[in-house]
Amino acid sequence: MQLNRFTDLGLRVLLALQYLPENRLSTVESLARQLSVSKNHLVKIVYFMAQSGWIDSFKGRKGGIKLADSSYQLKLGDIVQALELASSETPYLINCRQPPCSMAEFCYLPRLFSEAQQAFYHSLNRYTLSQLRAPADNQAIIKWLEQPE
To answer: Do residues 34 and 147 lie in contact, with contact meaning Cβ atoms separated by under 8 Å?
Structure first.
């Protein structure tokens, strides 16, 4: 299974926001620079995550975003599934309707792929977002955090 770009960047945003000091906010612009991605890509993702309650968003001159307190306990499989559904035309690994498949009435592949996809999400749900955080004394993390915003 390959995750789409929306999901990939969404996970990166959530991981990056975990390392934000408790009393600081980040911005989409600074996250885009830190993650080496386009700001335009992140705007839609950050909006979705704010609407989902995963991040807190503050408007104004001193505004920004931060990870919502409850997000640390989000399960990874639930995050991935929600991001995939938010950005995809179809939640299925294969789409038998586009183009229409003449074998759809008797083919078992959609059901098998659906089971595998659910097992994938279930496996990821063994981990919460907070479990993905590297120790604060990790030298790679320290170097990454010292990057200029």
So the answer is: yes
Distance CA 118, CA 121 (A): 5
Q: What HEC string does the chain produce?
A: CCCCHHHHHHHHHHHHHHCCCCCCCECHHHHHHHHCCCHHHHHHHHHHHHHCCCEEEECCCCCEEEECHHHHHCEHHHHHHHHHHHHCCCCCCCCCECCECCCCCCCCHHHHHHHHHHHHHHHHCCCEHHHHCCCCCCHHHHHHHCCCC
Segments of the chain scoring below 50 in pLDDT: none
Distance, CA of 67 to CA of 22 (rounded, Å)? 9
On average, the pLDDT of the chain sits at 89
What is the pTM (predicted TM-score) of this model?
A: 0.87
28-43 pLDDT tens trace = 999 999 899 999 989 9
